[in-house]
Amino acid sequence: MRRSASGKVDTDLREALGSLVWGMSASPHVSLAFPASPVPLRDDVAVEVTGAVGAALDNVKVHCGPSARAWVLVEDEGEQVLVTVRDEGPGIPEGRLTEAADEGRLGVAQSIYGRMRDLGGSAAITSTSVGTEVELRVPR
Amino acid sequence: MMPLRVLIVDDHPMWREAVARDLSEAGHEVIAAVGDGAQAVRVGRSLAPDVAIVDLQLGDMSGVEVIHGLLAARPSMKVLVLSASAEHQDVLDAVKAGALGYLVKSAGREEFLEAVRRTAEGDTVFTAGLAGLVLGEYRRLATADPANPRLTERETEILRLVAKGLSYRQIAERLVLSHRTVQNHVQNTLRKLQLHNRTELVRYVLEQGLEDD
């Protein structure tokens, strides 16, 4: 952790995601891909991003089983940070995401979309028969 | 397949033995298994193995230095890094120094033997983690100096898919390319980085030399 120019505490997103995966019990086998240098994010932003990734990985566990594999890629593009979570599960049936929202249930997708919206970022969830990809964009 | 002459560099005796046994059983010839970096460079230079399998954590010198030492004397030698829990920067430095690939020690026997075979053929052995490091390095280079090497759009696209855990076969299917083409693109990303690294080293040596005068 260190102070950024604004005086707020910065977290290295790589470390935050590393401990997230380390701490997940019965987690899917997660492979992490990071740049070699730190990816600093404001502390509160890192918490939300880590929460969104955690929600996505929990979803993998629930729908693809504890033995499923998942991949997390972090890319630092300077003005924004890109995080992708991918799995090779059966995919989410079409309409299923909006259905959950219509029923008033705070689904995984809503949790992810909500967190990103609050940060001024965005989330895209694409699901096909060969797996699901959740892409998070967070502005700096 | 032709039996390969392999050098193992690792400072854990039990691990050296296990790797040597796997390779021998697969019909390869382990010409030396050493735990000391300086010795590894000497042996590698004189015996010229087809493939060197190098751990990054050695007692006397870093694995990256060993790779530099081996390739300086034998540029055609193929190097595969096999490491337990290497630091990100060490892995990146190792491939920039000329290693063709990186495999974690938790990889299975078949995966390991396949990686050795591919390394011997000059093919790159990329894990998703390594692809993430290489993507990050190109990003860093582009920010540092616009004249630095860049990835083409296609290379970026493919490297991102590797970093997201897709196999070459899956990438070929998704992008409607041949397996060989995908392989070539991935190889190119590493070659450009290694070439740039060599140029930087030469420039550094020249500058140091001039300052010394």
Average pLDDT, all residues of chain A:
84
Instruction: Quote the distance from N terminus to C terminus of chain A.
Output: 16 Å
Strand ordering within the main sheet of chain B: 2-1-3-4-5
Count the domains of chain B.
2
Shape of chain A: globular
Largest sheet of chain B: 5 strands, parallel
Tell me what portion of residues of chain B adopts beta-strand conformation: 5-15%
Fraction of helical residues of chain B: 55-70%
Strand order of the largest sheet of chain A: 3-5-6-8-7
What multimeric state do the chains show? heterodimer
H-E string of chain B: EHEHEHEHEHHHHH
Overall shape of chain B: it is globular
CATH superfamily of the largest domain in chain B: Response regulator
Q: Under CATH, the topology of chain A is which?
A: Heat Shock Protein 90
Q: Gap between N and C termini of chain B, in Å?
A: 53 Å
Using the coordinates shown, work out and report the CATH topology of the largest domain in chain B: Rossmann fold
Residue stretches of chain A low in confidence (pLDDT < 50, at least 5 long) are none
**Coarse structural class of chain A:** alpha+beta
CATH-level-2 architecture of the largest domain in chain B: 3-Layer(aba) Sandwich
Structure description:
The complex is a heterodimer of chains A (140) and B (213). With 140 residues, chain A is an alpha+beta fold. Chain A has one domain (2-139): Heat Shock Protein 90, CATH 3.30.565. Helices cover 36% and strands 33% of the residues of chain A. Chain A has four helices and eight strands; from the N terminus they run E-E-H-E-E-H-E-E-H-H-E-E. Chain A has helices at residues 13-23, 43-64, 96-102, 108-118; strands at residues 2-3, 9-12, 29-33, 40-42, 69-76, 80-87, 122-128, 131-139. In chain A, the strands form two sheets. A five-stranded mixed beta sheet of chain A has the order 3-5-6-8-7, with helices on one face. A three-stranded antiparallel beta sheet of chain A has the order 1-2-4. In chain A, helix 2 runs antiparallel to helix 4. Chain A is globular. The model of chain A has no long low-confidence stretch (mean pLDDT 84). By secondary structure, chain B is of the alpha/beta class. Chain B folds into two domains: 5-125, 3-Layer(aba) Sandwich (Rossmann fold); 129-212, Orthogonal Bundle (Arc Repressor Mutant, subunit A). Helices cover 59% and strands 12% of the residues of chain B. Chain B has nine helices and five strands. Chain B has helices at 13-25, 37-47, 63-73, 88-96, 109-120, 128-144, 153-163, 168-175, 179-212; strands at 5-9, 29-34, 51-54, 78-83, 101-104. In chain B, strands 2-1-3-4-5 form a five-stranded parallel beta sheet, sandwiched between helices. Chain B is globular, with a radius of gyration of 17 Å. The termini of chain B are far apart. The model of chain B has no long low-confidence stretch (mean pLDDT 91). The A-B interface holds A 31-37, 69, 71, 73-78, 84, 86, 130, 133 and B 88-89, 91-92, 127-129, 131-133, 135-137, 139-140, 143, 160, 163-165, 170.
